[in-house]
Amino acid sequence: MSSDSSVDAVVIGSGPNGLAAAVTLARAGLAVRVYERNATAGGGMRTEEVTLPGFRHDLCSAVHPLAFASGFFRRFGLADRVRFITPTASYGHPLDGGRAALAYRDLERTADALGPDGAAWRALIGPLARHADEVAQFTGSAVIQLPRHPLVAARLGATALLQGGPWWNLPFRTEEPGALLAGAFAHTTVALPSVAGAAAGLTLVSYAHARGWPVPIGGSQSIANALVADLEAHGGEVVTGAEITSLGDLPDARAIVFDTHVRAAARLGEDRLAAGYLRRVSRFRDGNGVCKVDFALSGPVPWTNPELNETATVHLGGSRPAVARSERAVAAGRLGDDPYVLVSQPSLFDGSRAPLGKHVLWAYTHVPRGSSADRTEAVIRQIERFAPGFRDLVLASTSRTAVQMEQYNPNYVGGDISTGMPDFRQLIARPVLSPDPWRMPGRGLYLASASAAPGPGVHGLGGYYAARSALRHEFGVTRMPSLAPEG
What we know:
The protein has 487 residues and is α/β, with parallel strands linked by helices. Helix content is 34%, strand content 15%. It has 17 helices and 16 strands. It has a five-stranded parallel β-sheet. The model has no long low-confidence stretch (mean pLDDT 95).
């Protein structure tokens, strides 16, 4: 297929949503071409050597709570295409004095370890964990659609209200369960406590006790490679090193799918879009940014509490009030001395990431949108607080400020890896209030990125829904194709 030939559908961007859209369209028998500005496909799923030779680092996503929960990935059979390791503990949260709380895949083990708060944890999280698939279905769709499982949706909403305000510690008597929840809630970039942060965090916690938080062998690039392989097996192609600056750069196509920030899609499609839509998306707000730091280590992180070696994911920041203070400071445009830091050490479970005996460490901390601050030293200090001696293990490190995150991926405006503030308003209207938010009001234009429902995360659902809408409206296809592995 030559680059100037006409195709049925074009996808701009090869992140998880762009590739999900492309795979779905190609499986329906369409000729599909994906354009990617970088030299490799994957978007937030890239894995590269960025510190030292032989040390393979995930450039954005590292651990994948949605890999087994996403409706798209389950249809695609991702677990049958990519090897995953699922640690016994989904994540951990150390506290001062050598204490640590861990969210084990086993809910009962978690509750037992929380001692006097075990019953409260079981009552709060158990009903969601037991219905994690229904939680995934509700949170992975357009919010204004009627939920398929209304009782589960109501339970999630009520629990988010309980955990989304200053009364969030009422169920607990000790620090551990609140810290365990706050670390998950802070995956969003919103000030805490908040209902939106609680809803997103509770969803992650429910997955932690259902199928766990898996780590792909070989890095997140393995997921991207599986999607590209399926696309190519069904006649599609990915053109890398191709930045699209005008729709005139594209071949003739009946459908154009944007895996881009909504404002970038609006700029490209401006001539086709209604003025009202352009005004609404111009008001779409970006969230806070991240500073990303990668480390090559001579050995594993020397956690004071060795139980943290049972997980690939650790949330740093101390107690729940301390994490909330840190996130509120960032939301107010400030950098704190006690930041929330999310770290992942996949090499504990995947020996392919680093030379024998060596390790990689992935870390990010939240910063105000557009910050040029390099937070490497702040990240090291926070890790040292719970793992004395960590600094001595660092062979090399590299960082990306929030400004550099946007340079790496223009979807991350100001360093916002959520591609738009994931607050309550913008989770309901993402990017606009509509039962089909993926269909743009312009001939053949569709939005698939995290700027559209259901929002951020490596789940592919935005791309799947955009492709479903395009198949129905542009090609008259109402029955979705099978995405399952063949042979």
